Amino acid sequence: MYIGGEWREAVSGRRFEVTNPATGEVIATVPDAGREDARAAIEAAHAAFGEWSSLPAHVRARYMRRLYDLIVQNVDRLARVLTEENGKPLAEAKGEVFNGAEYLNWYAEETRRIYGETIPSSSRRTRIWVLRQPVGVVGAITPWNFPSSMVTRKIAPALAAGCTVVLKPAEQTPLSALLIAELIHEAGLPAGVVNVVTTLDPAAVGQEFLENRLVRKISFTGSTEVGKHLMQGAAAQMKRVSMELGGNAPFIVFEDADLDAAVQGVVISKFRNAGQTCICANRIYVQESIAPAFTERLVEAVRGLRVGHGLEEGINVGPLIDEAAYVKVEGHVSDARGKGARVLTGGHRLTGPGFDRGFFYAPTLLDQVSDEMRIVHEETFGPVAPILTFRTEEEVIRRANDTNYGLAAYIFTRNLGRTVRVSEALEYGMVAVNDSLLAVPQAPFGGVKESGLGREGGHHGLDDYLEYKYLSVVLDG
């Protein structure tokens, strides 16, 4: 682990294995931290906070750009390790590394724009000033589905604001975070500014984040269930929280849409990372008049996807992360079949040479899907696309909003009025119109309802890492 600028084993001496989900083979072992290790990392971050937060903005920016340059220079190495621990195709892994690096580049610039205010006073003798100051030590918890870009997406705004960080990566994919820690060390960031703690017991480390008063903010990306637990625990000390949680994204195709563009959009959104993204299309709503034509084109596109080991040339879809992910996907497909859905393609686990040791599921398309099926109400997190039909704009808005989640939604239409009406009516933090990619460093990423709190990206992403301090100053003389 990387604590206080040094590489350390866990106090217990324990380590755990990291496996490749495509082959089942062990690719590394890493330290298995407990609360004592997390406490040491928090103390290191706290010790570094005073110096880091007081550095001039342009100096912090220089460190961040140095780290950005190192990540870009090492993209091939980072991407290969990402594919080996996560399973996604190598081209996707490279895209993730580059995208993640851009958050460092963006927030290096934003360090210079953390402005205060001067407010008109109530008397001649006083001045009112407002400062924006860093929150303090941040406990950051990242998921396995984007093990590189989620790291940089969390540390970049924290570092820009002047915070220090203790990062706990997902136990399935700790290697990308440790490689980034190597580059942090090479970039020369002061000891303790960023610390990385790996563990097979995330609950213990998370509890230390919650109970240790040196931690002033928790940033979490993951399930809504765990997010709620962290929010409840953080309330005891009124810690700041940022939560990017589950989704159940509707993908709405209106009768005036460009069908080829809509089909391509579904494929990109639904099958990227084998459907294991929080913003992937979970429910495909197609207007009745175009449903046959759209479905025919989508079946052809899905059947053309190549599934396999992410390091092989030309692979579009890699494995699911583990057996539990497969069980959930199979459960959704089985439930839908049992309630009348029809499998147009896929619908089964892939076996045989190249597949037997991994968690591969065939890209799947269902139609005759109805609202009472689990796949409509629960996040599948797998390569399964259910098609539902609708008649009117009002109907599809109602059905799209009928969920506890509110992260991302997608609309395909060429009607400007409809674009405005539907975008404004959808209860989601992000809406893409004739587009299927949303995560960029300059825009605020996040959801409403049970999909989370706060935003990552853009100048908005700095807000959760900064406190306002109001100064009322009486002038002498």
UniProtKB/TrEMBL annotation:
Catalytic machinery residues? E244, C278
Q: One GO molecular-function annotation for this sequence?
A: succinate-semialdehyde dehydrogenase (NAD+) activity
Identify one Pfam family in the record. Aldedh
Q: Which CDD domains match?
A: ALDH_F5_SSADH_GabD
**GO biological process: what's one of them?**
aldehyde metabolic process
Where does the signal peptide begin and end? Answer: none
Q: Show the Gene3D superfamilies listed in the entry.
A: Aldehyde Dehydrogenase, Chain A, domain 1, Aldehyde Dehydrogenase, Chain A, domain 2
Q: Which UniProt keywords apply?
A: Oxidoreductase
- Where's the Aldehyde dehydrogenase domain? 7-470
Tell me the protein family, please: Belongs to the aldehyde dehydrogenase family.
Please state what the protein is called. Aldehyde dehydrogenase
Q: Which organism is it from?
A: Symbiobacterium thermophilum (strain DSM 24528 / JCM 14929 / IAM 14863 / T)
